[in-house]
Amino acid sequence: MFDVIGMGESMVAFEAQSFGPLREAEDFKKWVGGAADNYLIALARLGFTCGFFSRVGDDELGRFITRWIRGEGIDVSRTRADRSRPTGIFIVERRTPESNFKCYFYRGNSAATNLCPDDVDEDYVSQAKVVYPEAMLTYISDSARRAVEKLFDIALRHKQTIVFDPNLRLTMCSVEDSRAIHIPLMQKATYVLPGADELQMLMERPDIESAIERAHSLGIGKIVVKSGAAGAILAVAGQELKRIPSFTLKKPVSPMGAGDCFVGGFTAGVLRGQPLETCVRWGHGVGAFSTMAYGPFHGCPSMDELMKFLAGKEEVSR
Fold it and tell me: Does the structure show a pLDDT above 50 at 6?
C-alpha cells in the first residue's frame, strides 16, 4: 500500500557551477530532474510511502535515475529500462547570480517518449491513496499522453484522489492544443494546481478571478492557484476565494522545482486530513525550503523540520 504513486518523465540535469553563458561553463553538477521526481521526493522526505514509474534508458544515466529515486525511499519496481532509446537530459545555465536559470532540454527521442498505456499497471496504481499523473507526459508523445489518460481512468475507477498540475509548456504545445488536452483532465482531477498565468491562458480570461470562475463553470471544483512569492489562491467552487500568503525569505537560492515541491507539501496536508487552507500553508512551507538550495528538491524538509518552521520555531536557513 502506498500513500502516493506518480508517473512522469525523469531526466538527468547537468547544472553549470559557474555564472555566464553555457558555452563558457566547464564544471557541472548532476542530479535527477522531473516534476514527478521533485513531487515524490518532497513527499518521501516528509515520511510518506511513494512509488514512481516511467521509462528510462538502459544506460548509465537511466541507472543513475533509478538509483537516486530508490535512495530517497521511493519504489521504482515498475520503472522500465528501455533498450531502444536513451535517457533524456537537460542542461541548466545561470547567467548571473541575480538572474533566473535557463534550461536546455534534450528529450526528443528519449526513453520516456516510449511510455505507453501498457506501462500503466492497474494492480500497482490501485494500491495508492493519491495518484499524480505528470502533465509533461502529455506533450512528449502520443503514447505517453494515452498513458496519462489511462492513469486518470484507473484512479477514477478506484475512487482515488488525483492531484494534477497542468504545467503549461508553450514551447512544446500551442495553448489551443493544451486546452484540448488538459481541460478534460482538469475536470477529472480532485485537485488542480496551476500557476496563475497558466490558468488564465487555459481559460482564455484576462484576470485570475474570471479564470477561476470559468474553471468552476466547467466543473473544475477544487483549484489552488500558485503565484510563487505572491502566495496562492484557494478556490473551491461555491466558496469565497481565499488568498493565502507565502513566506518571505531573506536569501532564496533558486526557485527551480519550488512549484512541484509546493504541490508535494499540499498533498502531504491532504494525506494527513488537514483543512485545505492548512494544506496550502504546508505547500508554502515545503516550497520555501526547496528554494534554499541549488537543485529542485535538495532543500526539502523532513516532517519535523516543516512543523517547526510552520510553528515559527525554525528558520529556513540552509
Answer: yes
